[in-house]
Amino acid sequence: MKTRVDQNPSTKSESASQSTPTPKSMPTSGYKLSKPLWEALNFLFVTGVTCGGVVIFQSPLKTVLTNLTIDGTVLPKYPLTSIGTFGFFRALYAGTSASFAGSAARTAYVTAAKNNKPIEVKESTPHEEKLSGLNLNKAGYVMSAAFGDYVVTQIPKSLSQLRKIPNLLPSGFKWYTRNNLYQLWTGGFPSEYFAGFANFGALCVLEEELAKRLPIEDEKIRHLLSGALTGVGAGVISYPFALLRDYTLVHANVTNGQLRIDSTATILKKLAAAYLENPKEAGLAFLANAAKQVPIRAILTGGVFSIVASVGATLGNAPLSKIIPERFHPSKTNPQGFFYNRKTTGDGETPSSQQQEVESPSPTPKQ
Question: Where are the transmembrane segments (predicted)?
């Protein structure tokens, strides 16, 4: 009689281990930012740094210019002891939230406009720049870009300046009603557009051309200086238009929550009547006001241009590469989606191309 011999327990365990796959280690975290998201984050970072610097520098000077336009004084007519130091700086930076929104919108718009110029405007040699066709292309580019800048920034810019005028806007003023939005958007349109045309042309065309010609090797210093020089020139050239716009806004009024801003034609009629009534006094007042405002506007525009022109050169195209760890930087091979997971092996390593070829053998030809 045959006796059944039991198998070796070790043999059973070996066969069981062969039939049951060993669980692999979980893949390591391999999430990377996609290229579109990476570019968007870098763009927002540069925009935030730029508009923050612009607002800190610009807001108090805008307050000074507003008061000069109202009554020829540098600061509002109340003593510092009555409002305290905090109140003084609060008055100096009045309308900063709207100014920051407008500055952010304008910085994003200007950056996009400068980086997406028509090829005829962006690439031209000194010889080609003499051709009338290219000059017309540059003029058309600046005109359309200045109008786009007006559309994007006019409302927050006007609201910021109106908030700097003492006792104009009542508590709880609703700027977002239909009438108030229309008044904010159309108030001082012609003068604002022509001032923007001068500023935009200087920033987006002349600044880069001047930077190419300055005998300075350091790109940051070169753009800082070229921005300051073109900004000073733009501030002087655009002064009559900027003054007319400010004069239009400081004569606005609010009745029952409804904002009213006179048209540019109405303001020009009032100025003409005042000049005809007493030409000498009106002329002297204009010159005295210009002597105060032109240097401040030149410093303001030059400083803003320097900030805008130099921040980009200083931070570069990918400033976040120095902040975000490299393992999260976008891949050059698989940029699809905002996030994606790398293929990982059981050891948490990305397989090489040779390993992938071994794992995916070519099909056997039919016989």
Answer: none
Extents of the domains making up the chain: 31-74+82-327
Listed as own residue / partner, the contacts of 25-32 with beta carbons closer than 8 Å and 24 or more positions apart are 25/346, 25/347, 25/348, 27/341, 27/344, 27/348, 28/344, 28/348, 30/341, 30/342, 30/344, 30/350, 31/328, 31/339, 31/340, 31/341, 32/327, 32/328, 32/329, 32/330, 32/331, 32/339, 32/340, 32/342
CATH of domain 31-74+82-327: 1.50.40.10
Grouped pLDDT means (10 residues each) for the chain, 367 residues: 50 49 49 82 85 84 85 66 61 69 71 57 44 57 84 88 87 91 92 88 82 85 87 89 91 93 92 90 88 90 82 80 83 50 45 45 49
Q: What pTM was computed for the model?
A: 0.68
